[in-house]
Amino acid sequence: MSAARGASASVLALFAAGVVGCGTAPPDLFVVKRDGTVPGAELELLVSDQTARCNDGPVKNLTSAQIIEARDIRRDLIDLQDGLVDVPEAPPAQIFSFAVTTEKGTLRYPDTAQRPPILPRLSRFVRRVAIDTCGLER
Hints:
With about 140 residues, this protein is an alpha+beta fold. It has one domain. About 40% of the residues lie in helices and about 25% in strands. The chain has helices at about 5-20, 65-80, 120-135; strands at about 30-35, 45-50, 50-55, 60, 95-100, 105-110. Strands 4-3-2-1-5-6 form a 6-stranded antiparallel β-sheet. Strand 5 and strand 6 form a beta hairpin. The radius of gyration is 20 Å and the shape is globular.
């Protein structure tokens, strides 16, 4: 086989590999399980790099702003789970309890947790995605 023919075959192989890779699902960023004392409180939200899925329902696309926020949230969660940020004691949950899982493990917190700021931010993100993206009541 000539050098030109070999180079062409290599380029085609790389192109084919790239095309196949385009169909892969985006990586998961985190999973949030929420429960509570009000109807509709129970939620399992899987947040991937471009999509979300509520309660094993259909996959929904996130907006660009939601994708950026989800990535930022994940980064802050990893810092928290790595022990780079302290988590002060919070009063017991008033309505909702949360458990968020990343590749670093699971973090549980009540809706009363106001520090570090990532926890109320994550709670708001979960609520907005559940309502705006998945069409849930809460």
